[in-house]
Amino acid sequence: MQEPEEKKIALELLETEQAYVNRLHLLDQVFYAELMKEAKTGKTVPEEVVKMIFSNISSIYQFHAEFFLPELRKRMEDWNRTPRIGDVIQKLAPFLKMYGEYVKNFDKAVELITAWSEKSPPFQELIADIQKRKVCANLTLQHHMLEPVQRIPRYELLLKDYVRKLPPQAPDRGDAEKALEMIFMVAKHSNAAIAEMERLQNLWVVYQRLGLEDDIVDPSNELIKEGPIQKISTRNNSTSEKYLFLFNNMLLYCVPKVIQVGAEFQVHLRMDVEGMKVRELKDTEFPHTFLVSGKQRTLELQAR
């Protein structure tokens, strides 16, 4: 007899989970454990660096090896009596929020591996030595570390497929649909964590370019647009190069610094977005001009 489609997908989930647990074992029990052991001798890198590289991989490994994989295995052995995995995945879903921390830390971890490989030859040698082992299958540490980042999207794809192949009256339908919804929410949570981290990093770079002025640095601000602009001086009919940063709550009117030591711009004026008005001007001598008027003052500007 042909195996039902949904069982094939459930078996694929079990097989990939087994391979995934092996990968986690390699990351946690081999790379992390051995690098940590060396770090404790004080010859390679500080222990803190090793901890920062591997983030919360130990918790992720334990959860999959000691809970999810055994539950899934038990379920597949018992498939003919209880053909369902939806309830097991529902138990798994809330714990996948642990991935937020790992995923958020991933880029930083890769940067640390590169930086310390250059700084500490013994660190680089130890990683190279582990990578030569058969268990690594000729792949780098960074490659193995990418696996947890890709795991949640993989669950989502497999489960979508599983739900699609379930017969309408299947006993697992309700649970599987609910599990899929939960996994989808976790994937969104993980993506939101990455997006938020990127937003803060970009914001910090902008603040550095502005010389880290106290009253401007605020993590809740959102940069909407930035770019060069010409300031029109009506007195002598000339223009001068300026630069604008538009945030959700303020417009920063800046002057590019000639000598860029530290900051790239000097903030000349900060205008509140609240109550600000923008009006286009029909000026034949200066095309693309507009007026920005706020509580603080009015500027006549020309775009490219």
From TrEMBL:
Tell me which GO cellular component terms the UniProt record holds: cytoplasm; cytoskeleton
* Entry keyword annotation includes Membrane: no
The alphabetized UniProt keywords are: Cytoplasm, Cytoskeleton, Metal-binding, Phosphoprotein, Repeat, Zinc, Zinc-finger
> Example GO molecular function term?
guanyl-nucleotide exchange factor activity
Matching SUPFAM superfamilies, A to Z? DBL homology domain (DH-domain) (SSF48065), PH domain-like (SSF50729)
UniProt cross-references to Pfam families, sorted A to Z: RhoGEF, SOS1_NGEF_PH
What residue stretches are annotated with the DH domain?
5-193
The record's Gene3D superfamilies line, in alphabetical order, gives: Dbl homology (DH) domain, Pleckstrin-homology domain (PH domain)/Phosphotyrosine-binding domain (PTB)
What processes in GO biological process is this protein linked to? cytoskeleton organization; filopodium assembly
Q: Which InterPro entries match?
A: DBL_dom_sf, DH_dom, FYVE_RhoGEF_PH, PH-like_dom_sf, PH_domain, SOS1_NGEF_PH
PH domain: residues covered: 222-304
Primary localization: cytoplasm
Q: Where does the protein end up?
A: Cytoplasm, Cytoskeleton
Q: Which PANTHER family match?
A: FACIOGENITAL DYSPLASIA PROTEIN (PTHR12673), FYVE, RHOGEF AND PH DOMAIN-CONTAINING PROTEIN 2 (PTHR12673:SF82)
Q: What is this protein called?
A: FGD2 protein
Give the source species. Pardalotus punctatus
